[in-house]
Structures are given as C-alpha cells and as structure tokens.
Write a structure and sequence with these properties.
heterodimer, A: about 290 residues, mainly alpha, MetI-like fold, about 75% helix, globular, B: about 550 residues, alpha/beta, Rossmann fold, 4 domains, six-stranded mixed sheet, 21 helices, about 25% strand
C-alpha cells in the first residue's frame, strides 16, 4: 500500500483510541480484562505450579477460607485461589481461540453469502442451515472424541460448531448494508467486490461482529466447561469449567462449600461483563451516529 | 363567526440534551369552519410541530406555551380523558408518508374502523357500513377494505389515510405533507378530493407543505413559516402574486411555472449563471454520447409473470446538453438509468457510449464508469455515514488509481461542486452537513473522476425548496462551463423547464414523447404528456377558481 493510506490508518487508530478513552465503562472493562490476561500469562512466574498437584496438596479437603488459603481448599485439599488463577489460563485460551475461529468463519460465510447472489450464496446458506440444525454439543462431543484429546481439539470443536449464528447475523446485516444507496454509488464509481466489501460492508458489519464476539467468548467459555465436564477436555489442566463441574459432582455444593463454587463462577461473570463493556464502547466509537447522540 | 381553531401566541421549545431549541415562536393563526389554511415552510421551519401541537401529539421533550383553542376550548389544559375524546372525533391528522403511517400487517378496512370502534359504540354491521361509505367518499371501491397496504398504490394509500381521518366526522383535518411522495397526477386527485370535502361538509382544513404551488391551488389563505415564526400571512393568490417576505419569494421561485419565459434556464440560485456558450446547433442525426437502442429490461414478479420495466427505449444524450427524463413513479425511469450505467443488465437491446457498445466485463465496466457517473436521489443515504467528505470524494479516484495529488484532486472537485472554502469540508462527516451540502458532496464525488456524462436520479426530490434551485443551478453551470452532459430523471416538469434542453416523457416503460423542452411542454402531442401538464398544481388552481 502507498504511504498516505497507512498514515490515514494510523491517524484513524489514534482517533479511535482517543474516543475510546472517553468511555468510562469501556475503560474499566478493558482494565479488568488486561489485568486478568496479564495475571494469567504471568501465573507460572508468581505462583508455584506444584500446588496444582493432587498428590502434593498440603491442605485438608474442603477447608473454608482462612489466612492460609484465602479462598479455601477443594475436595483434594488444593488452594481454590491457585486453581482459579491457573484456570483462567485454559478458559481464556480456549475462549479466545474458539471465538476467533468461530467469528472468522461466521463473518466470512455471512458476508460472502450475502454479497454474492446466486449459487455460491445458496450453497453457503444450506451449509449454514446444516450446522444450525445439528445439535452443536453432540457434534462437538463427536469431534472431540474422534480427535486426540487436548485443548486445541476443544477449540476446534467449539469453533466449528458455533459459527452458524454469527454467519446468519452477519448475512442479515450485510444485506441491510448492501441495500443502501451508497453501495450503489460505490458501484457506479467503479468499485469491485473487494472495494465494496472492504470499504463499505466490513466496517459497517464490524461493530455487530464485535458485539457478537463478546457473547461468543462467554458461550465458548461455557462450552469449554461443558466439554471438560464430560471428560472430553484435557484432563491434565485445570479450567473454570472443570472446577465448577467437579464442585457439583463431588458434592461440594451439598456440603455447603460455597468457596469452591463462587470463584470460578464469578470469574466467568466478570470476564463476560468486561468483554461486553469493551464491545459496547468500541461500538460507540465505530458508529458515528451513536457518537453524535451522546 | 366563531373560529374552529385558534392559535394564540403559540411557542414550542424542545429540550434535548440540556439544550433548549425553540422550534415555534409566537404563532397566531385562526381558521373558521369551511376554510382552508395553508402553512408553507422548509424542513425545520416548525410547520409540522404546529400541526402536532394541536392534538398534543408532541414528544415529552416539547414544552408548549400560549393557547391552542379548538372550538373555543384550550387543548393545552385539557384533561387526559377529554383529550382522548377530542383526538380524532373533533380533529384528525393525515400523516406525512402514507406508506409508513399504515400498519402493514392489517387490512386497511380494519384500520379505518379502528377510530370508529374507539370513539363510538356502533354495532359491528354499522361500523362496516361506515367503512364502505368512507371508502366511497374517497373514491375507492369498497372491496379495497380487504386489501393490505402493500397491495395499494401510493395514491390509494393516501386516500385510505384521508378516509381514516374522516372516520369520526371531525370538524378539523390537519394534513401534513399529504401529497409529497405522490406523482403529479395522483397529487392533483388527492388535492381535489380534500377541496371537495371542505366545500361539501364545511370542515376546516389545515394543509402543511413545502410546495407553495400546492397551497396556491387549494388554500384560500396561506401562512409562510420560517425558523419557527410566521413571516407572512394572507390570501393565497396575493401571497403567490406579490410575496412580501424574501423567504416567500425564494419558496415561490423554487417551483417555476412551466411556460414562464423568466424561469427558462434560470433556476432560483443566488450565484449568477455563466452566459450560454456558443453551442453547435444540435443535429438530430448524430448519435448521442450516451445512447440506448431498443433497450428492454424485463423482470419476473412473484407470480412469475413478466414485467416490462423498460420496453424498447431509444434515447440519446448528446455532448453539452441536459436531457430530462420525466414520468410517474413505476414508469421505469430508474431502471432505465441503472441500465444505462451498467448496474442492471438489459434483457435485450444495447447501450452505446461514444458509438461503442458498453462492455459487460467487470474491467470494461470499470473503465466505462470513469465516463458516466451517477447522482442519487437521497443524499442522506448516498454517502457512507462513516466516511468523511474527503474519503467520499476520494473514493472514485482511489478505485481507479488516478495519478496525481489526491488532496488537490479532491479540493478541485469540491470547489467545482461549489463547496467553498473546500478545505473546511474535508474532515466533516455526512451527518454534520445539510441536505444540499450532502448532495454537493455526491456530485463532487462524481466530478472527481472527470466524467463526460452525469446521470442524476431525482437529484432534488428530497431537498428543501431553497436548496433545490442551487443544485439545479450547479448542474446547469457545470454544463455551461465544463460541457458536462446530463440525464436528469425527475417527476417534476418544472425542473425540466428550469434546466433541460430536451425532455423525454416515459410512460409504462416506453418513451412516448421526446423533443426540445419548449416543444414538448408547450405543445404536447401525446395524451399522457397532456395529462401530466394538466395535473400541475397551477392547472388545478385555475380549475378551483372556476369552481368556487
């Protein structure tokens, strides 16, 4: 690309950040997310991984919160704080990776299906319908039992099964955008498919995709926990989902061990909330109409 | 005689986001039964706010001061129950835009019956009889009660709206732009219908519109609003003939009288037009720069039946001339324009540019589009709301990879479209511009490619009256200064009279009459052209003068 175009993009990015900074909710969400991500990445440096080992666990099972174990212990006598800390790594990784995969497939299929009329659109829509009517959990289970067990299998299973709703959404939005007269104007100016999609459709669809992404991250984290519970996850790693499920299956809940249940649950709530705040703030920045209303 | 409606020192202030905007200031108006009062003004002049305030239909953010006396009773102090009773049974509204004011999923008969059921305890058979009677009053067959809104034409929907307004036999009807979206012929019918109702039943009619000629045709008295105030009020013919306020003059000039030599090649614009350059006398034999030869476009409707949108059209747009394509909506004008631009594939026939067939390959079309450019009807939606003026104008040159300094190219195009000083517009977004400025940006975007033909689809239909003349002046100036040919699609014969060299009249997919403006508009040969000309509001004015 020529340099003026890049310069324009750099200024656009700078403007976007300046606008974003004025949105308090978005800023809070971003800070929380950044804190969680940094802590998750730095976990091996600031904590002792050996505490996750069932054999070398030091505490007694289901010990309530105390000075030694701030959030109590689990059924195996491990620190819940440490587990939540490390669980963030797997949950975030699977959540992000599966979302990226799902949103990428969904956006691509959605835009292509809406932009190109005729048989490509018909074929893509039928494929989308096929995935939409297929129970995604069953498909994910089937996929992860056929493939080798591990985190990336779960990412693939969630990503491949959760894109159809994004595709439908993006297709609907693309059709709305493409009916606007400025698309006709761009065509009359001589713009090709790449120009129309890149300059007009994608920027208009992006806010929706971003908002959708926040939801997909949440549902991906939940899907990951479901698969982990069914024994399809990586048994060697701890995630928030598997913590919740162990808490339920081991009778920790009936024993009144709220400290085992709450931390992973609240962690999921906080992370989904942060994503929503950031997504909404970004949407406000990207959509000039919303900006004018404030 | 007691007044039916009296506004005393009416003021309306909208408070949005901590800011108070005074929409209406010190308006005093009165209307007696059997009278018609026209309120004219541009968008934002507060004319619709006045209408809505009569029935207290304004949003919560509006603060109303002054008195609104409906039959001597002040609407502003009415209790809720009384207000509900007054709404529709004493005064009713014909809303703007019939296509959006009707519920699309209910039959129109049901919608007409709704106010009757709400306000009276008539038994069901009587309600139905009343609906039939109302439909007859507005000249619709009674079977239409079973239709859904989408099955009716624009004029029929507007009649349904009027039938709804009449449902409870109100004494006052407020019609807010009742004919704006309609064709001239339908407009004439709707206005005649409203006029008859006033004469026969002695109701009062308040007609609100931006088109002074419509008011002149139907209203005994006219009030002109400008920035929330009534700047001029008086008998209709006097206001039209001798406007005192300059805003009234601007409004009156924006809608020229066809056949008036003073407005020929003289749209209402503040900037002087350049003199007519020496043009070679048009040769009937030379093929146009852009030409259609036996062009046909056929669509299939939902039942699979063929609809001939364009049925064998031969049209030439020569260098250095403006051709106006006139016709009703649904006559195939827009389809013809899209086909000329290569946005729609013709079923048969051909489009020629400079004597050569317009290519169908995407690379060939891209090259063709540097020469022939489009200006759309609604500038509000023709610009991507996310793109700045700079990006919108630079879009074409970027697509075509034009060499040279992009910034100076954009500035040049903006200056050519008379956005001055051009620098101040570069970083603005479309929603920060007025309608006229937006349309200029669209034109600048087309000019940036230095085309030789401009196809403009209703370029001023969605603009205010005072802006209309400026945009038309711009098109005429571009033709005179740059020799830019244009095909202007319009339903407005006055526009053709203002700027066009030749007129092509389109009716049901065919060109029924093509020729120089003076010949076609002053001595029409085809029946359809004659009926179009007869339906112009100035024509009805004369008819109603005889009738009254």
């Amino acid at each position: 690309m020529t340099s003026p175009a890049w310069q324009r993009r750099r200024t656009a990015a700078r403007d976007l950040w300046r606008e974003f900074r004025t949105n308090r909710g978005g800023l809070v969400g971003l800070c929380v997310l950044a804190a969680i991500v940094v802590l998750a990445v730095l976990a091996p440096l600031i904590t002792d991984e050996s505490g996750l080992d069932v054999i070398s666990a030091t505490g007694t099972p289901l010990q309530p919160p105390s000075g030694e174990y701030w959030l109590g212990t689990d059924v195996d006598g491990r620190s819940v704080l440490l587990l939540t800390f490390w669980g963030a790594r797997v949950s975030l990784l699977v959540g992000f990776a599966a979302t990226v995969l799902s949103v990428f497939i969904g956006t691509l299929v959605g835009i292509v299906a809406a932009h190109f009329q005729g048989w490509p659109s018909a074929v893509l829509l039928r494929v989308t319908d096929f995935f939409l009517v297929l129970p995604s959990l069953v498909l994910a289970i089937a996929l992860s039992s056929v493939l080798t067990k591990g985190v990336w299998t779960i990412v693939l299973a969630i990503g491949v099964t959760s894109w159809p709703s994004t595709a439908r959404l993006v297709r609907a939005q693309t059709l709305t955008i493409e009916s606007r007269p400025y698309i006709e104007r761009a065509k009359a100016l001589g713009g090709g498919h790449a120009h129309l999609i890149g300059k007009h459709v994608l920027p208009a669809v992006l806010p929706l995709v971003l908002a959708n992404t926040t939801l997909v991250v949440g549902s991906s984290i939940i899907a990951e926990s479901t698969l982990s519970f069914l024994g399809l996850g990586d048994p060697t790693s701890v995630s928030w989902g598997s913590m919740l499920q162990t808490a339920l299956s081991s009778g920790a809940v009936t024993a009144g061990a709220w400290w085992y249940l709450l931390p992973p649950g609240l962690a999921i709530v906080v992370i989904v909330l942060s994503f929503t705040l950031v997504g909404r703030a970004l949407e406000t920045v990207l959509n000039p109409r919303l900006k004018a209303g404030r | 005689m007691s007044q039916l409606l009296e506004l005393r020192n009416l003021g309306v202030t909208y408070s949005t986001g901590g800011e108070a905007v005074q929409a209406v200031r010190g308006v005093n108006l009165a209307l007696a039964p059997g009278e018609t009062l026209g309120i004219a003004g541009e968008s934002g002049s507060g004319k619709s706010t006045v209408a809505l305030s009569v029935l207290r239909l304004l949003p919560r953010s509006a603060n109303v001061t002054g008195e609104i006396l409906l039959d001597g009773e002040d609407v502003t102090t009415m209790r809720w129950g009384r207000l509900r009773a007054v709404r529709w049974s004493s005064a009713s509204v014909v809303f703007q835009g019939a296509m959006h004011a009707l519920n699309p999923v209910r039959r129109v008969g049901e919608q007409i019956a709704e106010p009757i059921r709400l306000h009276t305890d008539l038994p069901e058979p009587k309600v139905r009889a009343r609906v039939t009677e109302l439909l007859e009053q507005v000249d619709l067959p009674s079977e239409k009660a079973r239709s859904y809104p989408h099955e009716l034409s624009g004029g029929q929907k507007q009649r349904v709206m009027i039938a709804m307004a009449l449902a409870c036999e109100p004494r006052l009807i407020l019609a807010d732009e009742p004919t704006t979206a309609l064709d001239v012929i339908v407009q004439a019918q709707v206005l005649a219908l409203l006029g008859e109702l006033v004469a026969e039943r002695g109701i009062g009619l308040v007609l609100i519109t931006h088109d002074l000629s419509v008011l002149a045709a139907t209203c005994r008295r006219i009030a002109v609003m400008y920035r929330g105030e009534v700047v001029e009020e008086g008998p209709g013919d006097e206001v039209m003939a001798r406007p005192r306020h300059e805003h009234t003059r601007a409004l009156a000039a924006a809608f020229p009288t066809v056949g008036d030599p003073a407005s020929r090649f003289a749209p209402a614009t503040a900037n002087p037009l350049p003199p007519e350059p020496d043009r070679a006398t048009p040769d009937e034999e030379t093929p146009g720069l852009l030409a259609a030869r036996d062009l046909r476009v056929t669509f299939r409707d939902r039942r699979g039946e063929a609809v001939h949108a364009v049925a064998g059209v031969d049209l030439d747009v020569r260098r250095d001339e403006i051709v106006a394509l006139v016709g009703q909506s649904g006559s195939g004008k827009t389809t013809l324009a899209r086909t000329l631009l290569g946005l729609q594939r013709p079923t048969a026939g051909s489009v020629l540019y400079d004597g050569r067939l317009v290519p169908t390959s995407s690379a060939g079309l891209k090259e063709y589009r540097r020469q022939v450019q489009l200006v759309l009807q609604d500038p509000a939606s023709a610009l991507n709301p996310r793109h700045t003026v700079y990006e919108a104008v630079a879009e074409g040159p970027r697509i075509h990879g034009l060499t040279g300094d992009e910034r100076s190219l954009v500035l040049e195009a903006l200056a050519a479209a008379e956005l001055r000083p051009a620098e101040t517009y570069l970083s603005r977004l479309p929603h920060e511009l007025s309608g006229g400025q937006r349309q200029r940006v669209v034109i600048a975007g087309a000019l940036a490619l230095r085309p030789s033909v401009l196809v403009a689809d209703e370029p001023v239909a969605s603009l205010d009256a005072s802006v209309r003349g400026e945009i038309l002046g711009l098109l005429l100036r571009l033709r005179r200064e740059l020799g830019l040919a244009a095909l202007v699609i319009t339903h407005d014969l006055g526009l053709a009279w203002n700027i066009a060299d030749r007129v092509a009249v389109m009716y049901r997919g065919e060109l029924v009459e093509v020729g120089p403006v003076e010949q076609v508009l002053l001595e029409p040969r085809h029946e359809y052209t004659k009926s179009l000309l007869a339906a112009l509001p100035t024509g009805t004015a004369r008819a109603s003068e005889r009738g009254v």
